[in-house]
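About this split. The held-out portion is used to measure sequence recovery: a designer receives only the structure tokens and must propose an amino acid at every position. Recovery is the fraction of positions where the proposal matches the reference. Here is one held-out target exactly as it appears in the evaluation file.
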């Protein structure tokens, strides 16, 4: 029987089948043996994840233990890019855009020219509208980290997303703590608000030692929310979880590290005093036709801030979740800048309240003593420096009292706020040698003027103590005696903040210690244990003899008892104070006088001060008429006295 030769086609087919099975076996060996561990790791990475859990942010109380800031639950919607199926990604994006009322693509809700450089810096997430697709693309750099699409999602929307979770793979609804500022505008400049990490600061946050910050975290942006971010924030927790195919958590596996809540802050602020100061200031501003004002109260023995009011104010609750365009434009376009804390950042000529500095300097430098009498005729004529013999070129410098005060001692000069006394003391006149600019500036700086006080709030201004070099570089002109005269009464080029003048006043009140003002009294943990107690911080001890400061104190007491500040006199407590009216450029009145800011500084009781305060009313007129009554009302409330 003849053997049949194998069919060539069958042979080729068998060889192909053998090769395919060989390749399949080789691939199986490569996947299971060579890359087995790597494949298992990838599978487990999709199935098991290490996720972070947010720590509750610390809450904030006033000095009496009254709650000022708390956390309330809210919903956040996030997407895990790794869990988005490519074939359903567009469907998920479109549905989320509809539910969350977010754009698919990023866009601006305003003209580019009207946007700040960084919308996140002011919590303007709703102004710059990031698109869902762009957020997801950005999140692919860390595909297993949830990318937050929206904070403060309405309850009904959050529940609807949960119901549709099978149709929305990769979408996660979480509960997070949201800030609630209980008293809103009353304390907004002190407390501030939180928002997304500013774009230009993301790197610095992420690279901090021991940092657990992530791109979508909320941080303090202003106020104590910013300056005490580290204490308030807490530490995130960690847990290993198993997720399903849609990226939803199924169960927790392994040990979990619980989050550590942030520390709580106890402020130095007294809420009742803050309310009274705000009401008193607002009423007097309204009566005077002013749109801006400041009150700051301090314990002169410790530097604790008891009340800090800057009007107009704003509601920091507006910034929760990102402020709307309309609300921000209203704040931004307000002519008197409600977002600015004028107590710390406002720089104004101090007017006659600066005279306490000149008086202390003149006494310490022995230019004057208790018995020195300087005559006030109402007007003095300063000879021209290049033609001192020509009376027609002499410049008049007038006292606020045109008839003059006659001979005055330093105590009476402070009480009556005599301008000519302090012109002469600072710049000299005829045969009387005054302090001169260098010495006057030196003592001004000793009292803390011309530099930040160091208060634990952001954005403090330096003010300005001018010098001969400063004027030459700024204006190209030489310093003249008339400039020293103007500076002596808190006019001319000198600029101070209300907080600086309060700190200087407190140093007079307590006998010469300049303290750093503080707004936080204690830091406590969630169990109530003190983590950081209050400690007084001395900036410097003024090199002024006690007997010289005692004369300044005597003059300030006399100002209230029988001088220009009589409207601040209270029955039952001895108040010491100093009025000030500082001219600024503006339309002159019928008599040719410039408009003035109203100032008043005070402390009480005069013999053992418990409280010092400053009142500033922008464009408020005479300090004795406008600012002093505000202080009287606040002090009457503080000491529980009737106000006559």
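Reference sequence for scoring:
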């Amino acid at each position: 029987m003849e053997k049949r030769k194998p069919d060539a086609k069958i042979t080729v087919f068998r060889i192909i089948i053998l090769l395919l099975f060989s390749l399949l076996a080789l691939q199986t060996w490569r996947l299971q043996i060579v890359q087995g561990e790597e494949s298992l790791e990838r599978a487990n990475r999709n199935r098991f994840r290490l996720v972070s859990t947010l720590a509750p942010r610390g809450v904030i109380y006033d000095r009496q233990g009254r709650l000022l800031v708390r956390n309330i639950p809210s919903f956040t919607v996030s997407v895990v890019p790794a869990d988005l199926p490519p074939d359903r990604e567009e469907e998920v994006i479109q549905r989320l855009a509809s539910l969350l009322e977010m754009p698919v693509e990023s866009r601006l809700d305003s003209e580019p020219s009207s946007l700040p450089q960084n919308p996140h810096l002011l919590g303007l997430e709703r102004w710059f509208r990031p698109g869902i697709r762009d957020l997801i693309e950005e999140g692919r750099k860390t595909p297993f980290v949830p990318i937050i699409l929206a904070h403060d999602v309405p309850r009904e929307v959050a529940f609807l997303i949960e119901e549709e979770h099978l149709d929305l793979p990769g979408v996660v609804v979480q509960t997070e703590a949201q800030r609630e500022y209980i008293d809103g505008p009353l304390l907004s400049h002190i407390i501030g608000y939180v928002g997304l990490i500013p774009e230009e600061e993301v790197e610095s946050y992420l690279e901090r030692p021991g940092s657990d910050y992530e791109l979508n975290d909320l941080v303090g942006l202003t106020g104590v929310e910013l300056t005490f971010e580290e204490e308030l924030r807490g530490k995130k927790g960690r847990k290993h979880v198993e997720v399903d195919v849609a990226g939803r958590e199924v169960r927790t596996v392994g040990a979990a590290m619980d989050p550590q809540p942030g520390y709580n802050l106890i402020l130095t602020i007294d809420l009742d005093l803050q309310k009274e100061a705000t009401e008193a200031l607002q009423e007097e501003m309204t009566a005077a036709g002013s749109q801006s004002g400041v009150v700051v109260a301090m314990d002169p023995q410790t530097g604790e801030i008891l009340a800090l009011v800057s009007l107009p104010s704003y509601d920091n609750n507006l910034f929760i979740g990102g402020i709307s365009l309309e609300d921000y434009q209203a704040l931004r376009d307000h002519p008197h800048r409600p977002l600015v804390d004028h107590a710390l950042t406002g720089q104004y000529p101090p007017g006659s309240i600066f005279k306490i500095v000149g008086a202390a300097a003149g006494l310490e430098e022995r230019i004057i003593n208790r018995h020195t009498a300087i005559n006030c005729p109402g007007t003095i004529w300063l000879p021209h420096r290049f033609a001192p013999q020509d009376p027609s070129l002499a410049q008049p410098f007038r006292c606020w009292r045109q008839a003059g005060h006659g001979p005055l001692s330093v105590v009476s000069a402070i009480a009556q706020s005599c301008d000519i006394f302090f012109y002469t003391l600072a710049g000299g006149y005829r045969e009387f040698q005054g302090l001169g600019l260098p010495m006057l500036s030196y003592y001004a700086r000793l009292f803390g003027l011309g530099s930040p006080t160091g208060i634990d709030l952001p954005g403090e201004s330096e003010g300005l103590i001018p010098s001969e070099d400063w004027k030459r570089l700024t204006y190209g002109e030489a310093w003249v005696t008339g400039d020293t005269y103007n500076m002596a009464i808190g006019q001319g080029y000198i600029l101070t903040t209300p907080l600086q003048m309060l700190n200087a006043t407190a140093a007079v009140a307590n006998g010469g210690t300049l303290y750093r003002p503080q707004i936080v009294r204690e830091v406590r943990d969630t169990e109530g244990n003190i983590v950081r107690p209050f400690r007084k911080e001395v900036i410097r001890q003024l090199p002024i003899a006690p007997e010289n400061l005692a004369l300044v104190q005597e003059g300030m007491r006399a100002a209230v008892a029988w001088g220009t500040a009589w409207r601040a006199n209270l029955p039952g407590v001895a108040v010491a104070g100093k009025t000030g009216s500082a001219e600024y450029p503006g339309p002159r009145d019928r008599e040719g006088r410039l408009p003035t800011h109203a100032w008043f500084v005070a402390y009480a009781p005069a013999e053992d001060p418990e409280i010092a305060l400053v009142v500033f009313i922008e464009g408020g007129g005479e300090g004795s008429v406008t600012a002093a009554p505000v202080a009287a009302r606040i002090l009457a409330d503080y000491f529980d006295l009737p106000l006559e």
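Annotator remark: The radius of gyration is 34 Å.
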